[in-house]
Fold each of these.
Amino acid sequence: MSAPILPPYARSMGMVFDHDENGSPVIAMDFSDRNTGRPGFLHGGAIGGLLEMAAFAALHAHLDQQGIDADIRLKPVNISIEYLRSGLPQRIFARGVVVRAGRRVANVRAEAWQSDRDKAVASCWMNFLLAPRKVPVEG
Amino acid sequence: MTEDKGHAADVVRLMQEGTFAPAHWAKMMTSHGHSGFLDMRYVAHGDDWIELALPWREDLVGDPETGVLASGPIISLLDNCTSMSASARMKRFRPQVTLDLRIDYVRAAVPGKTIVARSECYQITRSMAFVRGIAHDGDITDPVAHAAGIFMLVETPNWVKQ
């Protein structure tokens, strides 16, 4: 699996591809002023943004394994985030799992954690619309 | 870090004050950290609602092919805006943490346009604030996103780290 290409938002937030875990990318983000919410803690929106990137990356990897990633445009439909613990001033990781990817819709779950993999900081489910890319007409 | 400590001390002082001015609070909270990085701005507020804005910026784009803003900044905007609407309704600030936040992305935001979020707190119990919000890029009847969330009101003395 090749490393996912992260969009400008993810790069400016300091999100990076950390490693691959069973075909699904783990995205990481270091604590910084850019993602601080109340003083001393990660911002919930930044955690949400990281979960989304992990969900996008998991779905891209899944579609890539089927050889159809280049033909499909992913449009986020909705997301529901559960905040389970305060985001501490440390590196945070997130990984998505594709629950189902059909022809039109994909359902993805993602989880974020810090020093202890078994203690999730936040989790989400996210739905995507899979839109075929318009093939340019020749001539 | 000195500036951060000063900000943390300001937050604690405002929490301890009996009076609460949503505009002042919102301006202070959006001028630091993640909200400051996103350049969030206070727009207006009422008895149980508040409006914040987020200007479009190239480095916040989610899809370089189209220039459409990533949804991450919209989550952050709605998180802050819905949270502050709870303070507007309570007329004081009580430490709170996001329990759950759901966002429907109704349509893609138009590249280059500022996103405005308007959120209201429609119910408060002893320990929870129930909130909803809309994000739009100029016309509230043609929303970009819709949010529903719950904040837990907490008493922790360590809500901020000084």
Amino acid sequence: MKWLLVALVVLCTALADYLQTTGMKRHGEIHDFRPGALGRVASALARNWYIPAAVATMAVSFYAFITLLSIADLSFAVPATAANYIAETLVARYLLKETVNAKRWTGAGLVAFGVLLLALP
Amino acid sequence: MSDHLRLKTRVFVVIVVLANVLGNFFMSWGVKRRGSLLGLSMLEYIRVILDPWVAFGVTLLIIWMLSRMALLSWADLSYVVPVTAIGYVLTAVLGRVFLGEQISGARWAGTLFIVAGIALVGSTSIRTTAPEAPRE
């Protein structure tokens, strides 16, 4: 059950970030941060189905993580979700077609390993 | 890579990280003051969310989500995800300084690995995909 929840957290987080990044890139770079302009961005994003779908997927991931915390220790949950850094880099490389060079892979790997170590007593 | 985009990205990374770390901190602080949430009715749950510290934490987490979305409108996901992991380091430092938590050697080593990873990813270009042509 623990591992099922970990898999759900990692999958949903990666999927949510895929949807969110795709939606935001489709919208285009935000330049204008005045309240009126941000209101227009919000209404455009609500109609771009990627963003509502990302929010729904994020909610599932959050709920799965809270449930995981209720049956497992934080020292299990945090290192298990270090896999997020690898999953998200794979999503970025293969689904979002970002250029993940050796530097980026190494960096993501070091961060994931660091998160693993953080959970040690 | 323009200096303007680099500066804008740095500013947003700082906002994303601070909103996340402080949001979690105030939310957990507010929730812990009320005791266990297990077995609360819907009405009691709403009362907890309306606690000023919890509400402040939740507001910061909403700012976190919105600023991260703005950042992703121009930056790569494979850039944003590792770089914002600096939040873990900040949490450890805040815990050490303000809550007097003891941090083991393994934890400091983890922190160093995270910082090294961020330094590597931070030196790559912010965006590697072409901007979409505006669709009318």
